[in-house]
Amino acid sequence: MRIAFDHQAFCLQKTGGISRYFYHLIEQLFTLNQTVKAFAPVYRNQYARQLARGVVAGCYISDYPRYCAGAAVALNGTVARNQMRAWRPDIVHETYFSNRRSGSKAQPNVLTVFDMISERGFGGAEIAANTLKQSTKYAAVERADHVICISEHARQDLIQIYNVAPEKTSTIHLGCEVIAAGSAPQRQHSNTDQRPYLLYVGLRSGYKNFARFVEAVASSAQLQSSFDIVAFGGGGFSSTEQALLHELKFRPKQVRQIEGDDGALARHYAQASALVYPSCYEGFGLPPLEAMAYRCPVVSSQASALPEIIGNAAEFFDPTDVSSIAQAIQNVVLSSTYAQALIEKGLARVSHFTWQQCAQKHLALYQSLGGRSRTDTAVASR
Q1: 2-175+355-380: which CATH number, 3.40.50.2000, 2.40.128.20, 3.90.1150.10, 3.40.50.720?
Q2: For 298-350, what is each residue's pLDDT tens digit?
Q3: CA-to-CA distance for 271 and 226, rounded, in angstroms?
Q4: What is the value of pTM for the model shown?
Q5: pLDDT one-digit tens code per residue, 73-97
Q6: Superfamily of structural domain 181-350
Q7: Rounded to whole angstroms, how far apart are CA atoms 156 and 170?
Q8: Hey, CA dihedral for 273, 209, 301, 178, is it positive or negative?
């Protein structure tokens, strides 16, 4: 098949989860001997640079001139649209939300929806029903021939909130690019001069629920006296967070925020006593799977898509209840036998999430929508 991806993810993001998903998808489709091309005339995405020569129709630039990003993305769209139509793909997969179709109406159009965070009100106030239909996301979903969701929970949210016909939607789970279960690294141990720590990964504000997590640790004398907290990524602590940590009587540097690359994150997974994932809403939730691959036991919120993705490979808690969070953490980190049992379950669970499987399911969907463009099909039937 001739499968086209538009410019949006690779021009909007320098790095990030959305462009990373499309990078892995394109890479795997290429290995499945499909004719794949991403149309991004002048892109700034780090992942796109790693694709095989000729897969990206465009050239890399470190960044767009200051204050010109919006115009640059729009111009990329105009050029890419013309290039794509001349290429005549069988399927067009739009990589983000736009009011305007990327490909021709002659080809089926596919879209991926990752979550319904803002529509559920987790990004702030819940969006009113009359406002929903004014968003570019709604326009893109309405226009698409088929919509892929990365979890069944996200799919059900999409159907309910946007009133999308169920048959127009599919669930395809993401892959996890870290080492598969059969060849996962042996668990490392922290340096003797470093206290055991609980690991938190990603953004921390709002529905990510970091505040309740640290409150839960502070509520347990045993946890607070025995464990540090490492917050990986998400930027430095805000003044509000610093005030909360002081109020909760954490010692200086007991709760640390650090940044780093994928290698640094892998090392922290491998050395942590547990990953604690307290989010109140996730469309998928990749960090728990990453932790499992590095033999790190997982303690997770039971909200939204997380039980669907994690299965039985974690200790779950109610993310709105501080005592529930504290008890779940204690159940894992104070019992080496139970922690080891979760590690074994995690290794088995993560093996079900590979990018190869993800790409194969995408390809099957593309083929079900029509192996040739609508124009070619119409001509052939005359």
Answers
A1: 3.40.50.2000
A2: 999 999 999 999 999 999 999 999 999 999 999 999 999 999 999 999 999 99
A3: 15
A4: 0.91
A5: 999 999 999 999 999 999 999 999 9
A6: Glycogen Phosphorylase B; (3.40.50.2000)
A7: 10
A8: negative
